[in-house]
Structure formats: C-alpha cells, structure tokens
Specification:
It is built from 6 helices and 5 strands, in the order H-E-H-E-H-E-H-E-H-E-H. By secondary structure, the chain is an alpha/beta fold.
Length: 145
Amino acid sequence: MLGGHDRPAQDKPQMPRLLVIDDEEAICFSMSEYFAHHGYVVDTARERDEAEKLIESNEYQVIIQDLRLDIHGKADGLEIIRLVHSRHPETRIIVLTAYGTAEMEDEARRCGADAFLRKPQPLSQVAQVVQGLIESPPKRTAKSA
C-alpha cells in the first residue's frame, strides 16, 4: 500500500518557479497570490540585494521585474537582467515598469529581457506573457567572439 502513495508525486509535473522583483509591496503581494493560485511557486524581492541572493540560490523559469527598485530612480533593474542573463541564460525575463521609454526598452532587451510591459497591466495579461515565454524556446543566441 505504501508504494501507491509514491506514484502520484512522481507523475506530478514540476510547478514553474517565478521571481517577482518590485519595490512596491502591493505588486509583489498581488502577483505572488495570483500566480500561486494558478500553480506557480513564487518568490518575491523588493530590493536589489534580496533579488540577487534569490537568483544566486534558485533557478527560475521566469522573472518579472521592475527597472527602478529604489526611491532614487536608478535603473538598477538592468543590472539584475545582466546578472540573470549571465548566470541563468535559460531564465525568461519580463520587465514590468512605469518608466518605460523606448530607449529603456531597447537597453533592457540588449541586456537580456524577453518582454517589456508598461504598468499598469492586468494580471491576466502578465500571465499570458509568462505562459507564452515558458512555452516558447529562448531566442537568445551565443555571442560571437
């Protein structure tokens, strides 16, 4: 009888793992609740240092992140994109920001972002982008020397 209990765990698909990085607690909370309800394992970070520690110690399928993580308005989110791209090139990155100029979008994509969304954005729309990125292969190519 004990063997029967092990089988469902083996057949169960691994839940996708997400990291939400945003200095706004309400955004971290609402995204965490929404995606957890839809079967994702979700971690959140509100500061760059916290995000970097999570990235170093976990593998994420998708990271949803803001570009500006402090009151000084620095675009330190670009550094996070570079870190993720160098450590975990298979991780898909979605930038979700209110500071979305065309130049900033271009820079984020050059650093390794897969999608660029402007706040506010319905959670259902963010979820569609997340699912699309999980289901599609990365478009990144190896840099030529």
